[in-house]
Amino acid sequence: MFVDLETTGPNLAADRIIEIGIVEVDADGVREWSSLVDPQLPISDFITRLTGIDATMTDGAPRFADLVPALSERLRGRLFVAHNARFDYGFLKREFARVGIVFRAQCLCTVKLSRRLFPQHHRHSLDALLERHAIAVAARHRALDDARVLWDLWQCWCHAHSAAQVWTAALGIIGRPQLPPQIDPSIIDDLPDAAGAFAFYDDAGKPLHIARSANVRQQALGLFAPERREVALANSTQRIEWREAAGELGARLHELAFQRPLRPLADDLCAWRLVEHGAGELRPQLVYSREHDLALGDDLYGLYSSRREALLALRRIAETHRLCFSLLGLGDTPPGKPCVAHRRHACRGACIGKESATQHTARLQAALARIRLKEWPYAGPVAIVERDDFGLREDFHLVDRWRLLATVQTRSALAESLERAQQGVAVSPPFDPEIYRLFNRFLSSGKVIALPSPGGS
Questions:
Q1: With CB atoms counted within 10 Å of each terminal CB, which end of the chain scores lower, N or C?
Q2: How far is Cα 334 from Cα 328, in angstroms, rounded to an integer?
Q3: Phi and psi at residue 260, to the nearest 5°
Q4: Do the bridges between strand 382-387 and strand 282-288 make them parallel or antiparallel, or are there none, so unpaired?
C-alpha cells in the first residue's frame, strides 16, 4: 500500500493532516482512495502555495475521526510504503491516537529503499527520483498523485533490478528480528525511527540494559540480531520501554531518567568555596547541597558526591600545582611547620613563610578556575529548543537554575508548564550534577537555541 499525506506543517505535535492519498496494490489489482481532511487548524499561505490546498477546500471535508472506519479497513494488515515513511506513519499514528486507537503497521521507507538499490546516487528526495526515472506527476504535493508516483517508482525499480531483488532489499529495511517469545512482537512496529533512549527490564522491573541512540528502533532491535544477540539479556528481558526525543540532548535526558533508580542523588553532594582566612588569604571550605543551593554558583568549585571524594580531588590539585597542604586543610601540621607536601618538595613553602599568602591564594584560584561552577546565566527559567533534522519534532526543555522542570512539544504546553512552576504547583527537582553538566555543555556548544520562556526575562 503506497501512502502519502499532506499536512499543515511538519511538526507531529502541532500540525494536522489535510489530505490522504492511498494506492492499494495486491493480487486483485490496483485501487485508489483519497480524501481531503478538515485539520481544524489554519492552513498557512506557504502550505497553500506548496499543495494548492486552502481552507475553503477543507472546511467542508470530513474530520480525521470521520475517516477512521474507511482508513482502518484499508490499512489493516498492509505493508505501509511511503517516502520518508517516518513522517507519514508518525502523523497517522498521532491522528489515530487522538481518537483512542493504537495504529501499527509494517513500514517501508522508499528513501531508504532507493539508497539501498542505487547506492551510487547521493540524492534520494522524491523530486530527484522522479527526474532520475523520468516519471511524470500530474500534481506534485497532492496526496493521491504522490502516492501514485511511489507505485510508479516501485515498478521502475522492479524493471531496473528484478521484483525479487527489490523485495529482498525491502525486507532488509523492514528488519523484523526474531524476538524472544516473552516479548510482545508488536513492539517492532511501535519502536520509533528517531532519537531517544530505551531500557530493557526483567520480570521484577529491574533495568537490565539502558542506552540512548540516534535511532531507538535500530539500536534496540539490533540487540536481538543473531550476530549481536546476548543470550542472557534476551532471555531475561520481559519488556522494553522507550522515550522519543528531538535530538541528542533529549536522548541523554531520557537516558538519565531511566538510570535514576540506579543512581540516587548523593546525600553528601558538595563543592568547594573559598573563604577569607586573614588578609589576602583564601582557603577552601566545603559547602553541602543540603545547606546551600549549589545551582546558584556563588564562587563554587567542583561537584563531589562525598567529603572523601572532594578531599581526594583537592589533594590531586594541590600536588599538581604545588600548593600547600596546610593552607588547604589537608593534614594537621602545626602552624609554622613544613607541611607534608613541602617535605616532599611539592609545596613552595607557604606553610613556613617562603611564599606569601596572597601569592598562594592567586595560584589556588588559578588552579581551581577550570572546575568553577558556572552560575545560571539567565534571570529566570528558559526554554532550550531542540529540533530534529526533519522538522517532525520540536522539544522545549524548560530549565531553571540548571534544573529540568519539563520537556514538552508545543509552545502552549510550554506556557502551561511555566505557569505551573511559577505557581508552585510543580515541585522543583533537586540539583543533579549530571543534569548541570549536560545543560552547561549543550548551552556552550551552540547545538540548541535557548529562548526566554513565556513570562521569563
A1: C
A2: 13
A3: -50, -45
A4: unpaired
- Look up cell 528481558; give the residue: 237
What distance in Å separates the CA atoms of residue 289 and residue 270, rounded to the nearest whole number?
A: 6
For 256, what's the count of Cα atoms within 13 Å in the CB-facing half-sphere? 16
User: 199 has which bridge partners?
Assistant: 210, 241
The b-or-e profile of 172-189 (16+ CB within 10 A means b, else e) is ebbeeeebeeebeeebbb
Collapse the DSSP code of 130 into the 3-class scheme (helix H, G, I; strand E, B; otherwise coil) and give the result.
helix
Which residue from 240, 276, 282, 234 is spatially nearest to 258, judged by alpha carbons? 240
Confidence of residue 327 (pLDDT cuts 50, 70, 90): very high
Query: Phi and psi of 104, rounded to 5°?
Result: -135, 145
Are the CB atoms for 198 and 220 separated by under 8 Å? yes
Helices (H) and strands (E) in the chain, counts: 17, 15
Residue 355 has pLDDT above 60, yes or no: yes
Strands (DSSP E) contained in 27-85 are 29-36, 79-82
Give buried/exposed letters for 42-61 (b at 16+ CB in 10 A, else e). ebeeebeeebebeeebbeeb
Q: 10 Å Cβ neighbour count for 307? A: 12
Kindly state the cell numbers that stand for 363: 595560584
| Contact present, 394 and 12 (Cβ < 8 Å) | no
Measured distance CA(84)–CA(456) in Å, rounded: 37
Distance CA 280, CA 269 (A): 29
Query: What is the CA angle 163-164-170, rounded to 5?
Result: 90
Shortest CA distance to 91 belongs to which of 189, 4, 176? Answer: 4
| DSSP class per residue in 100-118 | T-----EEEEHHHHHHHH-
Alpha-carbon gap, residue 120 to 99, rounded angstroms: 43
Is residue 456's pLDDT more than 60?
no
Cα 119 from Cα 302, distance rounded (Å): 50
pTM for this entry? 0.83
What is the per-residue pLDDT across 247-272, written as a single tens digit (0 to 9) for each? 999 999 999 999 998 888 888 999 99
